[in-house]
Amino acid sequence: MRPGLFLRTSLLAAAALFALPVAHAVAQGTGGGGPGGAARQQELIDRVTKELSLDAKQAEKVTSILKAETEKRNTLFQEMRSGGGDPQAMRAKMGELTAETEKELSAVLTKEQVAKYKEIRTAWQAGGRGQGRRPNPSR
């Protein structure tokens, strides 16, 4: 293995852990290599809307916030894939983006809804294991 390749691969993997799976879904649907990205994004939005019992106004705002975050994350992923950017800097940017999104959501959701959103997000990032598991089309 080439020197530094393991470190670079490890850093890239660590940076990806900070990514909202919705961003991954959109990346797949917009040149990320796989079909169904938009459908997976909508699946997460539908799940959040249902499990948080959002009213129409909240649902509209949450959808807008999550889609904007997805676009920003997709841009960061594109930069990383094209060889630009430092993995540590990307990880920091992802963390900042997550904090910004949670702040925006806190202005729209109740404290209880924010807590539930974080649970949903954690499960989604872990691959949807457990209750509410998302389907895996490759199986």
How would you spell out the order of helices and strands?
HHHHHH
Rg: 16 Å
> Would you count the extended β strands for me?
0
Query: What's the story with the biggest beta sheet?
Result: none
Strand content: under 5%
Residue share in helix: over 70%
Structural class: mainly alpha
Note the overall shape: elongated
Please tell me about this protein's structure.
With 139 residues, this protein is mostly helical. The protein is 73% helix and 0% strand. The two termini are 31 Å apart. The model is unreliable at 9-35 and 129-139 (pLDDT under 50).
Short description:
The chain has helices at residues 5-17, 21-32, 37-51, 56-81, 87-106, 111-125. With 139 residues, it is mostly helical.
Write the layout of secondary structure elements.
Blueprint: H1 5-17, H2 21-32, H3 37-51, H4 56-81, H5 87-106, H6 111-125
Keywords:
139 residues, mainly alpha, disordered C terminus, 6 helices
